[in-house]
Write a structure and sequence with these properties.
Layout lengths: L1 H9 L13 H7 L13 H6 L2 H4 L1 H7 L10 H21 L8 H6 L2 H4 L1 H7 L19 H6 L2 H4 L1 H7 L29 H12 L5 E5 L4 E4 L5 H11 L4 E2 L13 E4 L3 H4 L2 H14 L10 E5 L5 E4 L13 E8 L5 E2 L2 E3 L4 E3 L6 E5 L15 E3 L2 E3 L2 E9 L4 H5 L10 H24 L1
Antiparallel strand pairs: 1-2, 2-11, 3-4, 4-5, 5-14, 6-12, 7-11, 7-14, 8-13, 9-10, 9-12
Helix pairs in contact: 2-5
Cofactor: L-ascorbate
Main location: membrane
Membrane topology: Single-pass membrane protein
Length: 435
């Protein structure tokens, strides 16, 4: 079995790909009348079983006529059987559906694991509780192959052909976005609590103030000088555009955004000093953070209740760990940062900052639902602030490589699958020994 999968994953047939049910005439044409009905390669049977008679008819018709059934009429029977199988599969996929339009978004945010009782009942397709049009196996043998460990041994082939059985729904295979297994995470279990505790002791010059414990919300009454705040706004506030929430413009967020993503800002000494200051405080390399985001809230503008953790667990950079928010202006009235589930508000004052986690200290891969917050409407004046979002893994180079905010195949998925298979095998042996 493993040899077959390795052949399919490694060998590139001369390909003029056509649809699985559109290659019959081309396949017949490649087999000339009166020519011997033989296979020219010992691999023909394996290729035929993998569907290559239809996928690569020009090569298979000329070189694997016997395995493709061009001599005994079995090709027509095979095509009819596959057509019926496709109809049955489409009917089965249609029965696997979500009950809510937001299911896909919730699944990307990790809610299938965080809220399994609701999600697995109401978002069956997005949580891959059943085979759907978006996530299904392409081979009947997939379940057996997966049970035999082929998801780990031949991950690239299996991810494409056996997505459901390998539990890889919504996962894209990209070497550019596959993290180096040796890359250290930004935090481990317990590090979030430890960082906040140490920050209070290590940085008295920033005048830290505990606004909340469990979850932590830490204020800094003197993080930026007035000159630094003005300078950051000047170099990073170069191109204000309507802010996005998630993937688009929505009425829940009406501010404007400018990113520090141009050389004039990225190479600025003051910006680099502030960036290093935040990295030193959070104990996470600045390369693990997104570009600085500068925000402008004019009178009447706001950002309603939301959570900052929107990065999939298996994205190139992993979840957002921390938000470090700096206030770059005073506001005459309104504009507070309100933590809606903690009943605390932080008033905007130039040069101050606030830091909070987006994940749990005991399990940094799980979102801390308690740190939902909102930017209250500005009633008088203009509010300027700056977000610095810190991730679990390196962000800057991954962004340069073209990765985006979605799940990619990562090596820790293999370790998780191996562990699960071993646990299942141990459980089965235990049950067998008691019967």
């Amino acid at each position: 079995m493993r040899l077959l999968l390795l052949l399919l994953a490694a060998v590139r047939l001369p390909s003029h790909r056509v649809g699985a049910f559109g290659g019959l005439q081309q396949l017949r044409a490649m087999h000339r009348e009166g020519t011997p009905c033989v296979d020219e390669s010992a691999s023909c049977e394996a290729f035929a079983l993998a569907g290559e008679c239809f996928n690569n008819p020009s090569f298979m018709g000329a070189s694997c006529s016997h395995s493709c059934g061009l001599c005994d009429g079995s090709l027509e029977r095979r095509e009819a059987q596959e057509r019926e199988a496709r109809k049955a599969a489409e009917a089965r996929y249609a029965a696997c559906a979500d009950e809510h339009a937001a299911c896909e978004l919730w699944a990307r945010q990790g809610e299938c694991a965080n809220n399994p009782s609701f999600m697995r009942r109401s978002c069956r397709a997005s949580c891959a509780e059943c085979e759907s049009a978006a996530c299904h196996d392409s081979r009947e043998e997939c379940a057996a192959w997966a049970a035999a460990g082929e998801c780990e041994s031949n991950s690239q082939f299996m991810l494409k052909q056996c997505t459901f059985s390998c539990e890889m729904c919504g996962i894209e295979y990209s070497e550019a976005c596959r993290r180096d297994p040796k890359m250290p995470p930004g935090v481990r279990k317990g590090d979030v609590d430890a960082m906040f505790t140490e920050a209070i002791e290590r940085f008295p010059q920033f005048k830290p103030r505990v606004l909340h414990r469990d979850p932590w919300v830490l204020g800094f009454d003197s993080f930026l000088s007035a000159g630094e705040a003005d300078h950051l706004l000047r170099v990073a506030g170069h191109d204000f555009q309507r802010s996005l929430a998630g993937d688009g413009v929505t009425p829940v967020r009406t501010s404007s955004t400018s990113w520090c993503n141009v050389p004039s800002c990225l190479n600025d000494p003051t910006f680099q000093e502030v960036r290093a200051r935040i990295s030193n405080l959070t104990k996470v390399p600045w390369q693990y953070a997104e570009h600085l985001q500068v925000l402008q809230y004019k009178q009447g503008q706001f950002y309603h209740d939301h959570h900052d953790q929107n990065a999939p667990r298996h994205s190139a950079w992993g979840p957002r760990l921390y938000t470090f928010y700096m206030y770059l202006s005073d506001v005459e009235k309104g504009g507070e940062t309100r933590f809606t589930r903690l009943n605390i508000s932080v008033a905007p004052r130039k040069g101050t900052a606030v830091l909070w986690p987006s994940v749990l200290s005991e399990n940094p891969l799980v979102t801390d639902e308690r740190t939902y917050h909102e930017a209250v409407d500005v009633e008088e004046g203009v509010k300027y602030g700056a977000n610095f979002w810190v991730h679990m893994y390196e962000f800057q180079e991954a962004l340069q490589r073209g990765c985006d905010n979605r799940d990619y195949f990562q090596d820790d998925m293999l370790a998780a699958r191996v562990g699960k298979r071993r646990a299942d095998a141990t459980k089965q042996r235990s049950v067998a020994s008691t019967t």
